[in-house]
User: Fold this.
Amino acid sequence: MTGSKQALAQPASSADAAPGSQPGAARGAHGRGAPAGADSWRSRLYRWDMKASPYAFIAPFFILFGAFSLVPLLYTAWYSLHDVQLSSLDRQTWAGLDNYKNLWASDFFWTALKNTFTIGVISTVPQLLAALGLAHLLNYRLRGSTVWRVVMLTPYATSVAAATLVFTLLYSWDGGMVNWILHFFGVDPVNWRESDWGSQFAVSSIVIWRWTGYNALIYLAAMQAIPTDLYESAALDGANRWQQFRHVTIPQLRPTILFTVVVSTIGATQLFGEPLLFGGVSGSKGGSEHQYQTLGLYMYDQGWIIGNLGKASAIAWSMFLILVIVAVINMLFTRRLRKSQ
Amino acid sequence: MTTSELTLPRGAGTERRGRGRRRVMGAGKQLHAGPVTYVVLTVFALVSLAPLVWTAVAASRTDRRLAETPPPLWFGGNLFTNLQSAWDEAGLGTAMVNSVIVAGTITVSTVVFATLAGFAFAKLRFRFSGLLLLLTIGTMMIPPQLAVVPLYLWMSDLGWSNQLQTVVLPSLVTAFGTFFMRQYLVQALPTELIEAARVDGASSLRVVWHVVFPAARPAMAVLGLLTFVFAWNDFLWPIIALNQQNPTVQVALNSLGTGYVPDQAVIMAGALLGTLPLLVAFLLFGKQIVGGIMQGAIKG
Assistant:
């Protein structure tokens, strides 16, 4: 506050001083003498600039963000209450809650919800555990530490589409690399695309591959911010390295872990590209038995393959509601954590 | 005294101080890595890199060879034929040009607008600033699925389907970018510097140009890299808005993968081509990208 006030006051006083003869009078001298008028016009412009510029600076962001993110959010809700078909876009009739009733009566919706949850868990839990371990290793003093970090991040440079195409080939039934490696351990070829758990595992492994390094860097950043004296006093108390990790590192990382859990949960809820491309030609169905159709994929299938955009909107809003519930649970959890500390 | 004279020494000073602090903090705690650490890290590194290397191996083979057991472990002689097919037949050539235009535009606009808004949130006082910042952070978590139906309907109304502006427009700003710049400028831009420029009678635009942009430059570069990666890899909206007539890289890869007569060697060549620009970027700016992600993490 004081900063901007000072900044306001000082040019005004220099403008006062400029006419020379009567300091202080210039302030009320709008439009009297030509030089004084010019100065006060300038200081008024200046004041206007100070007041308006913050709004001018945030305007482009909020106009674009509002128009293409917030307004569509509301319109999606509106369309979810209408019958909107891809084949006849200009005919949109009021449907009340029909889309939602229709959705909740559909087995595919519940299958997709269940798949989203299962794939979410088997992709997030191992990924974050591996990231935690990896971050711990990267936190040692290493030769070429930057190179290690960049290497761990390269999967993040690979797009969902490229990564999935490669993994789909690695997981192919005959001639696939994964089955070939497994046969050395006496495992019969697994039909990764058709089996229930196999396909869900395969889809999850793409997510794990792409995001473990990224999350490790986030944990690493948080580890480096832990004050050294905590470790020193733990060492004085006779804690070994593992005990230090458990009783110093993990508690100190708790907010960061919570943050990554939330972000990964959001990512898992909207999982879409991996199952779509893993399925090949009929990808939007998520397999012959819909065994890996996620909510995001179900929405795309209903909206752009089947052509029911009203129902797709209802699926999108269901996803949103799930995320709101997750956010509320997370908030309560954080608050309880804070209280208990 | 001009503002740029003021900026340089101070900016350099804070940077030096920051680097020194990090070194001291690490020194007490960091233990030297033992051989086991290096072995485990090597395994992680192999898992990270192997699928990419194998993409190149598969792209140098033929479709028939890829269906045989054991899978090829070394390069064959078909790399250039496959790259050519991906470039011409699968439209990767057009797609690369389109992706550069799309991701480039999105990057420039995100960085500029995020810096302006981030500066306002970090250093200026205005009504509802707290509330608006909270709104920005809160909406970072909304999935893209919540926007695509209305966007699709509007773009079809405008007759814009299959044109590049349909993918550019909705991505011109991100909440993450604004928050990222705000967090950086709060600590990296000394308030006295703005005041000094104000005393000299600089208008807000001059302050932004001569004080804010120079101070924000490192963060702008990092945000630019992260945004480019994000825009290049964006998938859901582009495959709805565009088709194979005028694709981005991800749209072209999607058509390749869902085609009826897939040639796996050409698909791998396409995946390789589509990833190559980002791999080059990581090779050149990996350090900055890693730094940006770690920086965003501490404050985020």
Summary: The domain at 118-339 of chain A is CATH 1.10.3720.10 (MetI-like fold). The longest strand of chain A covers residues 88-94.
